[in-house]
Amino acid sequence: MLKSSIIYLLSTLLNRSVPLLLLSVLTRHLTPSEYGTIAIIQVFLSLFQSLFGGLNLNISRNYFSMGRHRFRSYMTAVIVVLIILFLSSTLLAFIYLAIELPLFGLSRNWLLAMPILACLSMANLLNLTMLRTEERPYRYATWEISNGILNLILTLVLLLVFQLGWTARAYGIVIPMALYGVLGVIALSRRNMLPLRFRWLDVKETLWITMILIPHTLSGFVVSLIDRIFIKEMMGVDQVGIYTIGYQFGTLTMFITVAFLKAWQPWFFKKIASSSIEDRGEIARNTWIYLGLLTAGSMLYLFVANFALPYIVDERYWDARSVLTPLVLASAAYGGYQIFFPYLVHLKLTHVLAIATPIAAFINVLLNFILIPQFGIVGAAYATLGAYIFTFVYVASISCRRISLPWFSWKM
């Protein structure tokens, strides 16, 4: 697990560090208002991605309990569900336009492209999840790093050579997303993971489980991104750009926890399937170690981020430093929640998230409404912190009560 974690960590960091590597260039060529426009596009993209629920989680949940022949037909059922969700989200996009809901500066064409981009993004994620579950970290790293490099090069060429302004960054995000989604489906097909036969019972079960998680993913969207909408309406799109820079810096530790958990999940599901007290003690021990390192690492990163931000971004964005403390703490709380999320999947208690995350979303919206008028973008950061602390405490408490692990006697 440690070896795979290091590979996943490096590949994910290289991929996710692209926005940070571009910060110095983007903040000198784009105004805060233009950077805010990019943030609004990402908000809508995340909204449509949330409509696909946790479809990829069905892979890890079933891979170790099904034979390979059976699992191959199940993967085809997953793709059928992906198509159903795509058609549903496309219909919602047309309804959104028909009833003339606010676009917050987004064009109609961008909105209509969102279901396609979200679908292809999930297709890429399905392939990456399959590589992780099969414990093929080097293939995974190649896929992730090449995606990040294309994102970086495309943005720089469109911005510096063709001088397309903020659209250069927008195309730099969505073109690799679409390309790797198509390549992901091709890769699964070439590995004989998508036979033409499937069971409609698998489609119904997967669709049901995925739809149960949609309130969770939608609420996750609210917690992590709705603050941009509040800031735009209350303070203007230029403040969205400044806040987004602070958010990118403040939540950098999320990239590290996500990378670790990509290795943790298949290892966890394999160990938890065993009735051995040694395996369960290992799970408890590694959970404690992870939480300790997460806390210490977050405090160290907060010091580094406060020092480094003025040297990386243009002075027009220096006010972003004011949101770093609450956002780094929010990232730590989110990382703590993530380590317990597979526990709920194993216990088939994902419906718990349908309770926890909507409450967290309500807390976030309420705090944004109250705090932004008084404290500006700092208020939005503390609203995010409050929502993530609640989610971590709620999910961790239920997981620890419902699963039998030697939490306080794991030293063997």
Helix share of residues? over 70%
Instruction: Please summarize the sheet with the most strands.
Output: none
- How many discrete domains? 1
Could you say which structural class the secondary elements and strand pairing correspond to?
Answer: mainly alpha
Query: Radius of gyration, Cα only, in angstroms?
Result: 21 Å
Gap from first CA to last CA:
20 Å
Low-confidence stretches: none
Task: Note the total helix count.
Answer: 15
Approximate strand percentage: under 5%
Mean pLDDT, rounded to whole units? 88
Summarize the structure.
The chain is mostly helical. It has 15 helices and no strands. It has one domain.
What does this structure look like?
With 412 residues, the chain is mainly α. The chain has one domain (2-402). It has helices at residues 2-16, 18-29, 32-50, 57-63, 68-98, 108-133, 137-161, 166-190, 200-235, 237-250, 252-272, 277-312, 324-346, 353-375, 377-402. The model has no long low-confidence stretch (mean pLDDT 88).
Question: Which secondary structure elements does this structure contain, and how are they paired or packed?
Answer:
Blueprint: H1 2-16, H2 18-29, H3 32-50, H4 57-63, H5 68-98, H6 108-133, H7 137-161, H8 166-190, H9 200-235, H10 237-250, H11 252-272, H12 277-312, H13 324-346, H14 353-375, H15 377-402
